[in-house]
């Protein structure tokens, strides 16, 4: 019967191509608008590390005080050097990584080639294991390298291609600002989106880094902070004075496998802030935060507000298109009242009328979904006109979006057809036969 009703529906749609085209266009445009904005929203609100997002936590300690806090009383987004080092040295977490953004001039061995300015991070050995960074060659440096302030580095595939033509580079040396670092590992070009571990510097979206060096060695070499730097008051001149100042520029992430571990670490944070208060460094009550990945992204409002507004508006547009489709289907189905009356008189039940007309509506939904896919492709190409390029390039069409577009189109059309179908099923066969 499904095949028979599908044939009837297709034949009915062909009888009035203008009306059919109007319905297909309405569904296609409504679905395309909602799917285009959903693609952007999905890209910016996804879980960047779903396998571990519940056990990775960002650490905040208020070293500014209420006079310098925002209206919500939030601590600064980052930590100063004193707090970051004290908390990491305590080793209260399974793993921890202190990170800051650096930039370095990479000098090729070939003197005929110009130096390249590359962005990177100074961090801890645990960084790579915590965040499941994928390695192509070698591996991360060790905790012992951290303690020894070793001149080692992990580089990205793209930088390896530039310096070593993609060959084996583990054990070779790379020249950063005139200082030699031994390559211990090469990673796949890695930039989870949103870039959760460096929201203060990137806003959550960035191309990723080309090199990573040990934090202790970077501090020894006075590699300047290439990211944000916020100070409650201007620090004194000099690198050592900067390290001892209250300027915040480092992030601390910890891995806590269980809820009890997170509770214990939060209590430790509160106790640490209270200890600083007793020592006279803080004159305010402890104000700390410990948030997992998704809570951190939500607190930092990483999802662009324009993507949320656009999604709501597009869903409203889809609803308007469906309302118009309801009216068109109602006119189309009721025009066929004599045909319905004859079918009912010959023994067709109301459920048969429902099946026939809902399958016909599903056919319209399929056609609208195909048109919606084409328009969604055009919409994604034009996303850059509304959103910044670093966000627009994240919106892509993949098999899941194709399937979702078709499913939404068919379901929306079938739902829109319920009321017209119900009205059509109420046709009285006796009255139709008598009047016709």
Automatic annotation (TrEMBL):
Regions that span the bilayer: 21-41, 311-334, 354-387, 399-419
Residue intervals of the MacB-like periplasmic core domain: 20-270
Keyword Secreted included in the entry's annotation: no
Record keywords: Cell membrane, Membrane, Transmembrane, Transmembrane helix
Any Pfam family hit: FtsX
Membrane topology annotation: Multi-pass membrane protein
PANTHER family (UniProt xref): ABC-TYPE MACROLIDE FAMILY EXPORT SYSTEM PERMEASE COMPONENT 2, MEMBRANE COMPONENT OF TRANSPORTER-RELATED
Protein name: ABC transporter permease
């Amino acid at each position: 019967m499904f095949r028979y009703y599908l044939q009837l529906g297709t034949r009915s749609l062909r009888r009035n191509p203008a009306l059919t085209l109007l319905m297909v266009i309405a569904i296609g445009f409504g679905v395309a608008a909602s799917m285009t904005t959903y693609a952007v929203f999905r890209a910016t609100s996804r879980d960047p590390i779903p396998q571990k997002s519940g056990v990775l936590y960002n650490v905040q300690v208020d070293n500014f005080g209420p006079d310098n806090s925002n209206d919500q009383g939030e601590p600064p987004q980052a930590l100063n050097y004193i707090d970051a080092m004290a908390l990491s040295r305590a080793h209260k977490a399974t793993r921890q990584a202190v990170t800051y953004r650096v930039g370095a001039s990479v000098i090729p061995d070939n003197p005929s080639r110009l130096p390249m300015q590359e962005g990177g991070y100074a961090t801890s050995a645990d960084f790579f294991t915590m965040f499941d960074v994928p390695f192509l060659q070698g591996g991360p440096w060790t905790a012992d390298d951290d303690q020894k302030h070793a001149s080692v580095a992990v580089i990205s595939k793209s930088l390896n291609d530039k310096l070593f033509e993609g060959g084996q580079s583990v054990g070779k040396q790379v020249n950063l600002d005139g200082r030699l670092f031994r390559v211990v590992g090469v990673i796949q070009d890695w930039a989870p989106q949103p870039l959760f571990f460096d929201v203060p510097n990137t806003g959550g979206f960035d191309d990723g880094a080309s090199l990573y060096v040990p934090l202790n060695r970077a501090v020894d070499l006075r590699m300047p902070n290439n990211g944000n730097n916020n100070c409650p008051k201007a620090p004194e001149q000099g690198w050592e004075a900067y390290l001892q100042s209250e300027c915040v520029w480092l992030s601390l992430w910890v891995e806590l496998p269980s809820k009890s571990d997170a509770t214990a670490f939060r209590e430790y944070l509160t106790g640490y802030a209270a200890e600083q208060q007793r020592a006279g460094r803080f004159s305010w009550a402890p104000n700390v935060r410990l948030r997992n990945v998704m809570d951190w992204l939500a607190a930092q409002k990483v999802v662009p507000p324009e993507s949320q507004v656009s999604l709501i508006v597009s869903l409203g547009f889809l609803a308007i298109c469906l309302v118009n489709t309801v009216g068109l289907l109602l006119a189309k189905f009721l025009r066929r009242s004599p045909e319905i009356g004859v079918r009912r008189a010959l023994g067709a039940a109301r459920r048969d009328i429902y099946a026939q007309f809902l399958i016909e509506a599903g056919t319209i939904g399929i056609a609208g979904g195909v048109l919606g896919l084409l328009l969604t492709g055009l919409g994604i190409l034009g996303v850059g006109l509304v959103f910044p390029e670093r966000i627009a390039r994240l919106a892509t069409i993949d098999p899941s979006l194709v399937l979702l577009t078709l499913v939404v189109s068919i379901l929306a059309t079938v739902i829109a057809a319920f009321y017209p179908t119900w009205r059509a099923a109420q046709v009285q066969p006796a009255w139709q036969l008598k009047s016709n």
